[in-house]
Amino acid sequence: MSDKNAHLEMIQGVVNRLSHNSFLLKGWTVVLVSAMFALAAKDTTPRFVYLALLPGIAFWCLDAYYLWQERLFRALYDHVRRLPAEGIDFSMDTKRAEASKVTWTGALFSKPLLAFHGAILVSIVTVMVLLSAAAE
């Protein structure tokens, strides 16, 4: 039974790292988008707001990748949990979990990511529209 617990702890460690990376990514998204807003307000050039779309979209995609991997490892955890103690091989291969229909696009448009990154992108577009209207 100790081999099974060790294997489950290894998988849980990966899940924890992935969720921590996702948390840090969300923080960097807010920081970079806010910095672009500050530069746009300071120099009164809306170009910096357009540049804010780049980290907004890129970090959304990267956050979806982390969530997708986290879901794959959670499915692997569930698979290992059900294995008999003799079947433990310490494999970290998530190919078995991929058959569970966990997809990157499913993670990309999941409710938590859509709410967070969608709100960021809506705020960027709103500021773009406001700055363009003010410039005219």
What is this entry, summarized?
The model has no long low-confidence stretch (mean pLDDT about 90).
Task: Describe it.
The protein has helices spanning 2-43, 47-82, 95-98, 104-108, 111-135. With 136 residues, it is mostly helical. The chain has one domain (2-135). Helix 1 packs antiparallel against helix 2 (47-82). It is elongated and about 70 Å long. The protein starts with a helix and ends with a helix. The mean pLDDT is 90.
SSE order and pairing:
Blueprint: H1 2-43, H2 47-82, H3 95-98, H4 104-108, H5 111-135
Helix pairs in contact: 1-2, 1-5, 2-5
Can you tell me the overall shape? elongated
List segments where confidence is low: pLDDT < 50 over at least 5 consecutive residues. none
Order of helices and strands: HHHHH
Helix content: over 70%
- Total domain modules: 1
How far is it from the N-terminal to the C-terminal residue, by CA? Answer: 70 Å
Give the overall pLDDT as a whole number. Answer: 90
Beta-strand portion reads: under 5%
Main sheet summary: none
Count, helices: 5
Count of distinct strands: 0
Task: Report Rg.
Answer: 20 Å
Structural class of the helices, strands and pairings? mainly alpha
